[in-house]
Amino acid sequence: MQHLATDLLDIAFESGGPKDGPFLLLLHGWPDDATTWRRVTPRLEAAGFQWAAPWLRGFGKTTFKDPAVFRDGSAEALAQDALDFVGALGVDRFGIVGHDWGARVAYTLAAAVPERLDGIAALSLGYAPNGAFKVPPFEQSRAWWYQWFMAADLGRDKVAEDPVGFVRLLWDTWAPPDWYEPGEFEETASSFANPDWLAITFHSYRSRWRPNDPKDPRYDRLREQVREVRVLSPPTLVIQGLADGTVLPASTQGKDELFSGRYRRLDLPDVGHFPMREAPGDVAAAVIDHFNMR
């Protein structure tokens, strides 16, 4: 594990690959952490890619420098963290491979700084034009029960009593049975012991559906940029597990018109919400093909 300082954060990350290779920023989702890429990165390195995988704000050993900073968990806050991170690494142009929250960051940056991106690969999350959170159809809303649960004060308090038990239930129901080893979950769950994990988690989900909840104003300009963009221009790959129990396949379909650049969707049968853990070979092959196309 390595560490890098930005204005707001001390960011923990892993990295590898040839220093002269094209750079890929690997962004994990929720509830997960940067170790999610460990079965994918050896294949990326063998294909000549340089990569870095940070723990997002509130996860693992990534910490805030100032205890007074507002714990904003929005996509725009995470996107600015990503820009600050690659800037501190001295990287100007890069590709993004993002899962779940990381996919939302990829879409956000594709809207805000398309000129800096070689492309994006978004796993297990569809694009929401203009950064808008719209209440989905009933079936998808039912699959997002945990978001409504945390948006309610009593639900938030219940999750705070046993966050790891809450996450274990999600891992058990978001993919086919017995898809992970207990040790894999325990290692990942150690990242949720970060003292800011609950604050970032609650703000991320509650602020989506409670429009009057506060947000950090330092990201207002980025939010305005995203609100102005409907169609994304960077080359985009979407990877969808057809057995995903939270982001239902129908929710990521029929979005071709929202991409003006090269667009491809890859469906993975019998794969749930964590494709890079469940089918790392398929994910790596698709990502390599996507970023090798010029």
Distance between termini? 32 Å
- Number of strand elements: 9
Order of helices and strands: EEEHEEHEHEHHHHHHHEEHH
Task: Label the overall shape.
Answer: globular
Write the layout of secondary structure elements.
Elements: E1 2-5, E2 9-16, E3 23-27, H1 41-46, E4 50-54, E5 63-64, H2 75-89, E6 94-99, H3 101-112, E7 117-123, H4 138-143, H5 145-151, H6 153-161, H7 163-173, H8 182-189, H9 197-209, H10 220-227, E8 236-241, E9 263-268, H11 275-278, H12 280-292
Parallel strand pairs: 3-4, 3-6, 6-7, 7-8, 8-9
Antiparallel strand pairs: 1-2, 2-4, 2-5
Helix pairs in contact: 2-3, 5-6, 5-9
Please tell me about this protein's structure.
- There is one protein chain.
- The protein is globular and about 50 Å long.
- Strands 1, 2, 3, 4, 5, 6, 7, 8 and 9 form a 9-stranded mixed β-sheet that branches.
- With 294 residues, the protein is of the alpha/beta class.
- Helices cover 38% and strands 17% of the residues.
- The protein is built from 12 helices and 9 strands.
- Helix 5 (145-151) crosses helix 6 (153-161).
